[in-house]
Amino acid sequence: MALVLFLVFSLLLQGAFGELICEELPAEMCAFSISSSGKRCLLETYAPTDATTTYQCKTSEVAANINMNGHVETEECIKACGLQRNVVGISSDTLLDSGFASELCSQDCSENCPNIVDLYNDLALAEGLNLSEMCKALKNSPRRIMAQVRSSGPASSAAAAPFAAEALNPASVESFYSAAWAPAPLLN
User: What is the pLDDT of residue 132?
Assistant: First the structure.
C-alpha cells in the first residue's frame, strides 16, 4: 500500500511541476512511458558491485512521434496490447509473435493506445514493415503474413521478398509464396 501511495504521489508531484524524468520513475512504471522531453523511457538491468541485478529506468534516444510528453502508459493499454510492464529495453522481436501481433492489431489496442501503436509502428518501420498494412493483412491471412514477416529482414534469403506495404494484399501474398516455394526445375 505504501508503494502505491508513493507512486501516486510521485506522479502527482511530477505533474504539478510539469516534469516526467525517466530516471526518477520506479521500475514498475518505466516501460512504455514518455519523458517530458518526448524521449521514450526504457527499463535497463543494472548490476551494482554486490553482484545482484536490479532494474532502473533510463531515458532512451528514441523520441516519440506523438505529442504525449510526460505520459505513463495505463495498465488498460498494457493489457489490451498484450504487453508486460517489466520489459527490458525496446525490441521489434515481439512483432514476430503472431499472438502479440494480433493483440497489438486488436481494436482495443489500436484505437485506444496511441503511445504503444506509435512505438511499435516505429519499430516496424525500422524493420521495413508497415504496421497498419500488416494489421489489415493479419485479419485476412494471419499465418501467411506472419511467415512473410519472419522471412523479412537482413538474414532472409534472396527468394524471400521484403515485407513492404505494397506486398500486403492477398494477391501479392500468393505470388510471394508461389515464387518463394516453387520446386526446383528437373534437370535431364
Answer: 92
